[in-house]
Amino acid sequence: MLFDYVLRNGRIAGGSPDPVDVGVRDGRIAAIASSSAMSARDSSRDIALDGRLMIPGFVETHIHLDKSCISDRCNCVTGTLQEAIAAAAAAKRNFTEQDIYARASRTLEKAIVQGTTRMRTHVEVDPRIGMKGFHALRRLQRDFAWAVDLELCVFPQEGLLNDPGCDALLVEACENGAGSIGGAPYVDNDPHGQIARIFELAGRYDLDIDFHLDFDLDPSWMHLDEVCRRTDQYGWGGRVAIGHVSKLSALDAGALQSVGRRLAGAGVAVTVLPATDLYLMGRGAAHSVPRGVAPVHRLLDYGVTCSLSTNNVLNPFTPYGDCSLIRMANLYANVAQAGQPDELTACLAMVTTLSARLMNLRDYGIAVGNPADIVVLDCRNSSAAVAELAQPLLAMKRGRISFSRAPAVINWPTSADLSGSVDPASRHRDAGI
């Protein structure tokens, strides 16, 4: 068989530590064999990986493309969640469809060069913005399909039952290409009513659900319980995710275990947004500021599907961001004090395989027959990827190279100038990518 590409001598994350060759043909993974088992005559093009790590691409489970890159339009002072919501809502009134498309494109291009190949973006609809954001991101979905599979999660950021006209817009989006539906009960005057309506619409249109939930540090009450109850009622286990859930960071070990078992039993997944949660939580503390980041690596022990994600980029909720999910995994590991090799490996899973499970991606993974979505990281194993912030060097989407960057090269002085202080043979060589 003649392959379009053979990726030679790479290691598959989560697989055997031994290097393998991966043959790609017609946009799919056609063969995986032990390193050097495939002849040079078997491919139109060889890509030497020199033992580097291959992943099936990063999976962004929670981002807001429609309101990215607006920091320069907002004047925020307190850094609270309430201020961020108000500032973004004010800026949103001047959004146009073309403006949204242009900003979202810049953000999506950043994600592409950081190795993201699948993405769920939230998109707001309400009587102020109408369907502008939804239409802009539908265009983006089509225009960038060569590099990223983009799912649109429609949701009401400023409330639903307290916002006349919003429900009809949600329905319109559900009937015109929304891939999932979300909500933010904490901004509604009837949080349980919003949860009930979102489940009703999800059931009607057969959509997965992704809530923004329990986004504060008061653990005395949670909307999480109602979401689990409705998940059980609708039989929607495995199709519901909740984001932020910073209340979980304020629980003791026993209470966290109880919540973890309830989430696992209901089939409700959890996404943590480390950059945003760190930035917005604990603003009322003058010292010993709480981190406000839910310890999702502990929830994995109870069988909860968990992911880490970017959330916001250059806006009042998060005035930072380069769309690097390996950076987000590293940030979480630092904050959560997750430093053992198995913990670091779990952090990589929470931006790859576990994220894919949360989004119910059936064709994700480096396996024969799957789409040839492959990202090469400049490291040798999964724990090192997170510990060392390994850079993506190349991404392939359905068998086409969507981006590449050369590894950094140190410009050594000549052998004569080294005066024997460095052995030239010890220098790390370029992989030829």
TrEMBL record:
Ranges of residues in domain Amidohydrolase = 160-386
Alphabetical list of Pfam families matching this protein: Amidohydro_3
Q: Which Gene3D superfamilies match?
A: Metal-dependent hydrolases, Urease, subunit C, domain 1
What InterPro entries does this protein's entry cite? Amidohydro_3, Metal-dep_hydrolase_composite, Metal_Hydrolase, Metallo-hydrolase_Enzymes
Presence of the UniProt keyword Metal-binding in the record = yes
CDD domains per the UniProt record, alphabetical:
Bact_CD
Give the UniProt keywords, A-Z: Hydrolase, Metal-binding
Protein name per Swiss-Prot or TrEMBL: Cytosine deaminase
| Originating species | Bradyrhizobium erythrophlei
Q: What is the lineage of its organism?
A: Bacteria, Pseudomonadati, Pseudomonadota, Alphaproteobacteria, Hyphomicrobiales
